[in-house]
Design goal:
The chain is 27% helix and 22% strand. By secondary structure, it is an alpha+beta fold. It has three domains: 221 residues, 3-Layer(aba) Sandwich (Phosphoenolpyruvate Carboxykinase, domain 1); 275 residues, Phosphoenolpyruvate Carboxykinase, domain 3; 77 residues, Phosphoenolpyruvate Carboxykinase, domain 2, CATH 2.170.8.10. Bound molecules: sulfoacetic acid and manganese (II) ion (MN). Monomer.
């Protein structure tokens, strides 16, 4: 190994950066393969943040924002080709192809490793290799969920320090456990932007490679990523670990890793409920997690906005933690009306903004934010004015901000046991067919609702936007194994546990449109009215009518007091149109057929039941 080890912070008396043999051996092996100029063991300290952000300003990756407006915050613009998750380049390399199922790309793991070793060979030349010890969830958890990310991107390192608990403390804990002879797991997560530098070659602000691979090896609990610097492709603790790899661990160990926000809802009477909700990327999870209720006396506190890990507790209830440490939210559309709590959080600073517009006073702006600047620089680096034809910001531009800065974060966020979930919401973006809210009849029916979740595609992944696709449990790009088995896992959670202790399941759609093409429901803070009906249903207080697809609010049961909405609009938002639903049946059938014998038969039974009720 030719690289020098820069960091002294974790060096023991031996002078080695860690006493953990496994990590040291892996870092040595990867350094030999990738040939970085330097190795930096991350500490997670404020000094390290300052050093890395200064260096990123130096290379032109970051622009420091005006400290009076956004203290200690930075603007970055990616390469215009590297702006979202690349689902067609994402692989589940299970030993058996069958285990990747029909919804994932698959390649034989040995073949993939050969291919990627070729790409990784010398790929960090001229760069620093950062070693990031991290933990998803709490370091104090009964079984901390460790990982080590190796990356050659300082941008990724800085972003990881916002999104995950990382650094010296985490490494120490792993060293202690190893020294105590404890058996514990850590996930090796290798990332490279895939752009080595020859001696004297100038770097670019956003290095990346046209060849991209985002690869999970589920049996080995290992992640290899190449070619992209963007969020979900490169911050490997997030979707790659906390969903794809964790979903496999969860299958094997009897828990659940889900693409869900977690919120705490307190009624005027002081009754507290916890809600988890699964929506596809860029469908409003962050806004719902930080919702500011419009109905008097109700309060929402955030616990998570993207990922929930849920386990059955000793009390038979489903307990959820948010494994993340920051918010990686969609910027466009975020403003004082749609998400005042997110605005307050990012305005405290310590944040990274990617692919938004940069204003002349050193602030950021994006479509939907108040007070458009007279002039700005677009995410593509071009002059922009409100008259410009192009958007100032990419539709998937993001803010990356520490969760602890959110004033309405529930204190339970810090509890390694998590919170007991009372209700699970599934939802998607549908212009038609799907009513504002529907309650499932039971867990199995709720699983059917989740398994058939449909949504119009968004800019969070590359590809066409606005196409209806099935996105089961909003996990389509994140299930790390055969989705048929995943549905079976959901069914088993209901079978193996006391159903009366499990959360009630609902399906929501904020995005239904009227004949004039406008949204039927105002959304955002007004969604508190739907949450109120949900928790009143759980407590047996709110009325519902039974329909072929489940229970919807009875007339008058949804609190629309003070809402500027006609009876006709409300009726349309809640309507169950039998003909529209009959048109869904062949689509659901086609979707289920993809899974062949791997689809749990009870889901066919649910579909038959739905058909019969629609025909009745
Ligand atoms: O790109 S991320 O996966 O980090 C965000 C998202 O698509 O949900
Ligand atoms: Mn997400």
């Amino acid at each position: 190994m030719t690289a020098t080890t820069e960091s002294t912070t974790t060096a023991g008396s031996s002078g080695r950066p860690t006493t953990h043999q496994g990590i040291l051996a892996w870092v040595t092996e990867i350094a030999e393969l990738t040939q970085p100029d330097r190795i930096h063991w991350c500490t997670g300290s404020p000094e390290e943040w300052a050093e890395l952000t200064d260096a990123l300003v130096g290379t032109g990756t970051f622009t420091r924002l005006n400290p009076e407006l956004k203290p200690n915050s930075f603007y970055a613009a990616s390469d215009p080709t590297d702006v979202a998750r690349v689902e067609d380049r994402t692989y589940i390399c299970s030993v058996d192809e069958r285990d990747a199922g029909p919804t994932n790309n698959w390649m034989d793991p040995d073949q993939m490793k050969d291919l990627m070793r070729g790409l990784y060979a010398g790929c960090m030349k001229g760069r620093t290799m950062y070693v990031i010890p991290f933990v998803m969830g709490h370091l104090e958890a009964e079984k901390p969920m460790f990982g080590v990310e190796i990356t050659d991107s300082a941008y990724v390192t800085v972003s990881m320090s916002v999104m995950a608990r990382m650094g010296t403390e985490v490494l120490r804990k792993m060293e202690e456990l190893e020294a105590a002879g404890e058996d514990f797991q850590w996930v090796p997560a290798l990332h490279s932007v895939g752009m080595p530098l020859e001696p004297g070659q100038a770097d670019v602000p956003w290095p990346c490679n046209d060849t991209k691979y985002i690869v999970q090896f589920p049996e080995e609990r290992m992640i290899w990523s190449f070619g992209s610097g963007y969020g979900g492709n490169a911050l490997l603790g997030k979707k790659c670990y906390a969903l794809r790899i964790a979903s496999v661990m969860a299958r094997d160990e009897g828990w659940m890793a889900e693409h869900m926000l977690i919120l705490k809802l307190t009624s005027p009477a002081g009754v507290t409920k916890y809600v988890a909700a699964a929506f596809p990327s860029a469908c409003g999870k962050t806004n719902l997690a930080m919702l500011k209720p419009t109905i008097p006396g109700w309060k929402v506190e955030a616990i998570g906005d993207d990922i929930a890990w849920m386990r059955i507790g000793d009390d038979g209830r489903l307990w959820a933690v948010n494994p993340e440490y920051g918010f990686f939210g969609v910027a466009p559309g975020t403003n004082e009306h749609t998400n005042p709590n997110a605005m307050a959080t990012i305005n405290k600073g310590n944040s990274v903004f990617t692919n938004v517009a940069l204003t002349e006073d050193g602030d950021v702006w994006w479509e939907g934010l108040e007070n458009p600047p007279a002039r700005a620089t677009s995410w593509k680096g071009e002059p922009w004015t409100p008259d410009s034809e192009e958007l100032s910001s990419h539709a998937n531009s993001r803010y990356c901000t520490p969760i602890k800065q959110c004033d309405m974060l529930a204190p339970e966020y810090d509890d390694p046991r998590g919170v007991p979930i009372d209700a699970i919401l599934f939802g998607g973006r549908r212009k038609t067919t799907v009513p504002l809210v529907t309650e499932a009849r039971d867990w199995t029916h709720g699983t059917f609702m989740g398994a058939t979740l449909s949504s119009e595609t968004t800019a969070a992944a590359t590809g066409a936007v606005g196409v209806v696709r099935r996105d089961p449990m909003a996990m389509l790009p994140f299930i790390g194994y055969n989705a048929g088995d995943y549905f079976g896992h959901w069914i088993n959670i209901g079978k193996d546990n006391d159903a009366s202790r499990l959360p009630k399941i609902f399906y929501v759609n904020w995005f239904r449109r009227g004949e004039d093409g406008g949204f039927l429901w105002p959304g955002f803070g007004e969604n508190s009215r739907v949450l109120k009906w949900v928790v009143e249903r759980i407590d047996g207080q709110a009325a519902a009518v039974e329909t072929p697809i489940g229970h919807v609010p009875a007339p008058g049961a949804l609190d629309v007091d003070g809402l500027d909405l006609t009876d006709e609009e409300l009726a349309q938002a809640l309507a169950v149109d039998v003909e529209e639903w009959k048109a869904e049946i062949p689509q659901i059938q086609e979707w289920f057929e993809k899974f062949g014998d791997d689809l749990p038969s009870v889901l066919w039974t649910e579909l038959d039941g739905l058909k019969a009720r629609l025909d009745a």
